[in-house]
Design brief:
about 250 residues, mainly alpha, about 80% helix, MetI-like_sf, transmembrane
């Protein structure tokens, strides 16, 4: 067979061994689903939905979207110029490239939850530290993703700009940025969607929004309100995905 080579057998063997070892470590056992009816009983407590608090929960959902939007927007605004320093073809100096990559890796390696806990000591409870936590993590993630887009950009337009004597930053602005902009928007809306889910986790540490309400409702066994929380979260994610797709259609 053309698609299969003998040396690939060892790759599949290593993957199989790693999968088996991981399953053993994680106690991966599908037979545990024999108590599936317990999950059904638990989910049945979610209905009928309690819609009495819907106006208040809708307000909290808007707060969650605001946290996610600001965290993604400010993250993009800071990450975009940094990504040009983190790309091999535009950084200009090896030390600048290495230092920027290290900085982005550091921000990316720290979860938003940890940033949130650290910021609580200075900023206290509320949505503001949640926004800053998402901004810091998004700088690391978006900086890396955009720098890879820059490295994959066509060199032709940049060489043409250099040939007519344009400065490096002008070339970056008019030769590279237009090429990567649709993909940058895709990354932004994906991170926006992820930030909505992240803000739910930050609600556990007092970040506000629908995540905090979800935590309270679970903790107080108000499952009929939990179902409303989950429904609103689903609507938010679908809405962001739909709007992001429409905007990308306009740009492309």
């Amino acid at each position: 067979m053309v698609w299969f080579k003998k040396r690939q057998f060892f790759v599949f063997l290593i993957i199989a061994v790693l999968a088996a070892y991981s399953m053993r470590l994680t106690e991966f056992d599908l037979s545990k689903f024999r108590d599936f009816e317990n999950m059904g009983d638990f989910l049945s407590k979610w209905f009928p939905m309690n819609t009495e608090s819907l106006p208040y929960l809708f307000t909290e959902s808007v707060l969650t979207i605001s946290i996610a939007f600001l965290g993604s927007l400010f993250g993009l605004i800071i990450a975009l110029p940094l990504s040009f320093f983190a790309a091999r073809n535009t950084s200009g100096h090896r030390i600048i490239f290495a230092a920027t990559r290290f900085y982005l890796s550091f921000l990316r390696s720290v979860p938003e939850f940890v940033f949130g806990l650290i910021l609580l000591t200075t900023l206290g409870l509320g949505p503001f530290p949640a926004v800053i936590a998402i901004v810091l993590h998004n700088i690391g993630v978006l900086g890396k993703l955009i720098s890879e887009l820059i490295e994959a950009a066509d060199k032709g337009p940049m060489e043409a700009m250099s040939a007519v004597g344009a400065k490096r930053w002008i070339g970056n602005l008019f030769a590279i940025l237009p090429q990567i902009w649709p993909n940058v928007l895709s990354q932004f809306f994906y991170r926006f969607e992820v930030a909505i889910r992240t803000s739910l986790i930050l609600g556990l540490i007092g970040g506000g929004g629908i995540g905090q309400q979800l935590f309270i409702h679970f903790k107080t066994f108000q499952y009929q309100l939990v179902s409303v929380d989950v429904l609103l979260i689903m609507i938010m994610v679908i809405l962001v995905d739909y709007i992001g797709g429409k905007i990308r259609e306009k740009v492309i």
